[in-house]
């Protein structure tokens, strides 16, 4: 039973790594800006609402 659980965890990790390589995150872009956006420091989270054209980002701890 323990070997089945270990195999399941290993399979899940392998799947996540394959998805990360196969589908890299596309750079964020905002209509009206001349180029794509890039982060100097990675945000804790971000989301672009294309319907309302709103970019939301969250800073991690120990940031301005």
Architecture overview:
By secondary structure, the protein is an alpha+beta fold. The protein has one domain. It is 33% helix and 16% strand. Strands 1-2 form a two-stranded antiparallel sheet. Strand 1 and strand 2 form a beta hairpin. The chain is elongated. The mean pLDDT is 75.
Could you outline the blueprint of secondary structure elements for this entry?
Elements: H1 2-22, E1 45-49, E2 54-58
Antiparallel strand pairs: 1-2
Please describe the structure with a list of short key phrases separated by commas or semicolons.
single chain, 64 residues, alpha+beta, two-stranded antiparallel ribbon, 33% helix, elongated
Q: pLDDT under 50 segments (min length 5)?
A: none
Could you give the order of strands across the largest sheet? 1-2
Helix amount, in percent?
Answer: 25-40%
SS element count, helices? 1
Shape: elongated
**Rg calc:** 18 Å
**Biggest sheet architecture:** 2 strands, antiparallel
**Tally of structural domains:** 1
Question: Quick one: how many beta strands?
Answer: 2
Bin the strand percentage. Answer: 15-25%
- Distance from N terminus to C terminus (CA atoms, Å) equals 49 Å
Write down the secondary-structure element order.
HEE
Quickly give the structural class: alpha+beta
Mean pLDDT: 75
């Amino acid at each position: 039973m323990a070997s089945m659980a270990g195999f399941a965890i290993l399979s899940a990790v392998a799947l996540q790594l394959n998805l990360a390589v196969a589908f890299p995150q596309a750079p964020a872009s905002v209509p009206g800006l001349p180029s794509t956006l890039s982060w100097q420091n990675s945000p804790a989270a971000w989301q672009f609402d294309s319907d309302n054209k709103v970019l939301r980002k969250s800073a991690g701890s120990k940031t301005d």
